[in-house]
Structure formats: C-alpha cells, structure tokens
Amino acid sequence: MLPLHDDNPTQITPYVTIALIATCTLVFFWQLSLGPYSQQAVVSLGFIPATLFDGKSLPPNLEIIPAWMTIFTSMFMHGGWMHIIGNMLYLWIFGNNVEDSMGHTRFIGFYLLCGIIAVVSHSLPDSASTTPLIGASGALAGVLGAYILLYPHARVLVAIPLGFFIHTMRLPAGLVLGFWFILQIFSSAFAGDQAGGVAWGAHIGGFIAGMALIPLFKYKTVKLFSSEIR
C-alpha cells in the first residue's frame, strides 16, 4: 500500500519540509558522485552505535567528525534510489501538514528530536553494532506518528498492487499509517531489526516519539484527531 497524495491542504508554505527533501536529495547525489568511495562516506557519516555507546573508534582516515554528530548526518544519507524516493515521498505527503500544525521552527526541532530518539531506539538493543545506520526513516516515522494523531480521518490516495495491476483508492490516514506501523512491528519481531538492511527498531521508536511529542509541539489551537487544518 503506497501513499500517493493526501486530501489535506495547508495554510503555510512548508519551507522546512521542502528544505529537508532538497537537502537529502543533494546529499544523495553527492554520495553517487563519490563512486567507489561512497561506502567510505557511509561509514564516516552514518551512525555506528559502537562508536558512541561502546567506546569503539573508526580508523583515523574515516573518523572525520565526532561520533555524536553522525546522529544528525546519518539522517540525510540514503542507501539507494528506492530508499530515498520512498522516504521523500512520505515526507512530502505527510510532512507539510505536520509542519503546518506547529510552524517552521518547531518543526525543525520536532523532526530532529524524533530522529535522535529513533537512532537511540535502534542502537540500545545492540549498542556494540558496527553497522552504519543511514536514512531519514527514523525522523520521518516521527512525522507519521504525529500525523496519525493530528489527522487520522484525512483521506490518503494509495496505490495497491494486485498482481499485474495497480488499484488506487482513498483511505483514512489512520488506516494507512496504522497499517504501516503494524508492519514495522511485525517485521522487527519476525525478520529481525536489521533484516534486509532495514532498521525496523528506528521506525518504531521514531513513530512512538512522534505520537508522544506532537501534543507538546503543536499549536494550542490545533486539535488532535481532526481532519481539518487550523
């Protein structure tokens, strides 16, 4: 079930959402430009739990920034075309409304804080892991968690593959995002947190963080469980 668009207009231009998408895209093209050295960039700028929680160090030629800073740099890197396209599509569809609910400045803090919590959620079960974590998925999951509480009744146009055909229909955001969250839980439980290179734990932690933080970040005039914009 792939979201394509939501029927939920905004009152502001989502400058931060646009800037995040643009930054992730530019960073991804920079990664591509590195050619065979792109994996070194992933190791240097991706978040490696063991370097922060287990006292491990990277080789001197790869340790270009402090370990704590990779929590932030990792949020803007991606591992392939499908990775970045999927993340940016979700961010474009749902990020603008969440930004609208709290304003530009608060949205920056909200997004980064959800990303931090997602990284910690992924790392604590295996703090000695040396596998780099990259992608906007954790912070994005926080956006989805906020959206499901803000606008669960908003309609989302989704594409549903049916064999060789693709069927489109409009479904409540609560159903679409609830299904996404349940999928993360089942994937983490039965496939393992890093199965297929996907950090399911970061998705789960980010989503829960978004749900917990949205009452603190949204404007007081914005009500939860609404299908309307302030």
Mean pLDDT: 92
**Helix-strand string:** EHHHHHHHEEHH
State Rg.
18 Å
The stretches of 5 or more residues where confidence is low (pLDDT under 50) are: none
Report the helical percentage.
55-70%
Q: Output the strand order for the largest sheet.
A: 1-2-3
Gap from first CA to last CA: 28 Å
Shape: globular
Oligomer: single chain
**Care to count the β-strands?**
3
Strand content: 5-15%
Could you give a short account of the major beta sheet? 3 strands, antiparallel
Features:
single chain; mainly alpha; 3-stranded antiparallel beta sheet; 3 strands
Report on this structure.
The protein has 230 residues and is mainly α. Helices cover 56% and strands 9% of the residues. The protein has a three-stranded antiparallel beta sheet with strand order 1-2-3. Helix 1 packs antiparallel against helix 5 (81-102), helix 6 crosses helix 7 and helix 7 (137-150) packs across helix 9 (200-217). The mean pLDDT is 92.
Question: Briefly, what is this?
Answer:
The protein is mainly α and about 230 residues long. Helices cover about 55% and strands about 10% of the residues. The model has no long low-confidence stretch (mean pLDDT about 90).
Topology (elements, then pairings):
Blueprint: E1 2-6, H1 15-33, H2 38-45, H3 49-53, H4 70-73, H5 81-102, H6 104-123, H7 137-150, E2 155-162, E3 165-172, H8 173-191, H9 200-217
Antiparallel strand pairs: 1-2, 2-3
Helix pairs in contact: 1-5, 5-6, 5-7, 6-7, 6-9, 7-8, 7-9, 8-9
